[in-house]
């Protein structure tokens, strides 16, 4: 009897050992060549998309063309990422759906869009800001996209020049930069009913938005520049998303018109020209003292992740752009890479 028990015990040890060995030998296949890295989009001409590996050891330009042997279209405006797909939004009126890790083309949405700008996702739907006719201030809308059929199934009328779009707790916030004119509102849309519920007035030309660590929606409005003959103040506005009301407005001095913003580790970064400035979540005023000045000739986009600050330089709008990567603590340049023509947006895949 004792011998039988010992044999059973030995067999159980062997089974456990084999099981553990199999677990140790399990390998995860990469999802694609463009997994775990930095994606840079460029408006063109021609428009294109570049990739840089997360460890900064490899880079590749023209990744969409390389995967599909076709161009991305005229004036690539933005990308959106949802599950295993990426959505390439082109001003000319199309959205190309690709596998986000291989960039192989899956579908094209080519009807129901007029001058599309940005896309966000909620409740298994895509929401795309559309200018309509940029010279007509009454025909702007948000296109609602069925992500399974890749078709526009509804439109939500909104004010002039809807630009960036952000989703928080299934509520959409849309900044209205004003297309070819100007505007000063943020639209709030309920994604359960797909109805515009309210608009929030901010300073002129609101564009970039983030949610800070305090749970506030932070909106950067660049104001009207002096060359318009009707200069207005730029501002950073904080919105209480429980009440959808403005809680704080931090205005800039005349002549200061930041256009870019990013957020990392409780610090809100913005630009004045090619210089980078920062305030904390609880700041009561903006600062005009730069932390450092980037190497960009024409700073056109910036983003932040994992203690690094990323900047794209559109250079002269005809040559290849540049990506600059800085350390958030020392503000020292870590590396730089060639980027698309008119490099404008930075994403993390």
Automatic annotation (TrEMBL):
PROSITE patterns, sorted: PROKAR_LIPOPROTEIN (PS51257)
Listed Gene3D superfamilies: YVTN repeat-like/Quinoprotein amine dehydrogenase (2.130.10.10)
InterPro entries: DUF5074, Haem_d1_sf, Host-pathogen_enzymatic-act, WD40/YVTN_repeat-like_dom_sf
Taxonomic superkingdom: Bacteria
Record-given protein name: YVTN family beta-propeller protein
Organism: Winogradskyella pacifica
């Amino acid at each position: 009897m004792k011998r039988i028990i010992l044999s059973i015990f030995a067999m159980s040890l062997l089974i456990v050992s084999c099981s553990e060995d199999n677990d140790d030998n399990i390998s995860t296949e990469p999802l694609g060549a463009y997994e775990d890295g930095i994606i840079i989009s460029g408006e063109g001409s021609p428009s294109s998309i570049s990739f840089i590996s997360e460890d900064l050891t490899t880079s590749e330009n023209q990744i969409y063309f390389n995967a599909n042997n076709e161009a991305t279209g005229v004036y690539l405006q933005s990308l959106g990422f949802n599950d295993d797909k990426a959505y390439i939004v082109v001003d000319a009126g199309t959205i190309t759906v690709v596998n986000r890790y291989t960039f192989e083309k899956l579908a094209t949405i080519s009807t129901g869009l007029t001058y599309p700008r940005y896309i966000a996702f909620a409740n298994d739907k895509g929401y795309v800001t559309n200018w309509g006719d940029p010279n007509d201030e009454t025909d702007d809308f948000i296109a609602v996209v069925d992500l399974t059929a890749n078709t526009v199934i509804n439109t939500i009328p909104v004010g002039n020049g809807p630009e960036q779009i952000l989703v928080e707790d299934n509520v959409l916030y849309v900044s209205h930069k004003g297309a070819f004119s100007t505007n000063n509102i943020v639209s709030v849309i309920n994604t359960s009913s797909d109805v515009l519920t309210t608009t929030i007035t901010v300073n002129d030309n609101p564009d970039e938005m983030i949610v800070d660590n305090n749970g506030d929606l932070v909106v950067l409005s660049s104001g009207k520049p002096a060359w318009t003959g009707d200069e207005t103040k730029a501002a950073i506005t904080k919105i209480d998303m429980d009440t959808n009301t403005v809680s704080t407005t931090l205005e800039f001095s005349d002549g200061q018109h930041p256009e870019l913003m990013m957020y990392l580790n409780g610090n809100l970064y913005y630009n004045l020209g090619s210089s980078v400035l920062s305030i904390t979540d609880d700041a009561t005023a903006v600062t005009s003292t730069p932390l450092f000045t980037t190497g960009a000739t024409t700073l056109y986009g910036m983003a932040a992740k994992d203690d690094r600050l990323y900047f794209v330089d559109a250079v002269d709008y005809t040559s290849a752009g540049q990506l600059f990567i800085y350390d958030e603590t020392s503000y020292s340049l870590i590396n730089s890479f060639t980027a698309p023509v008119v490099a404008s947006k930075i994403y993390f895949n």
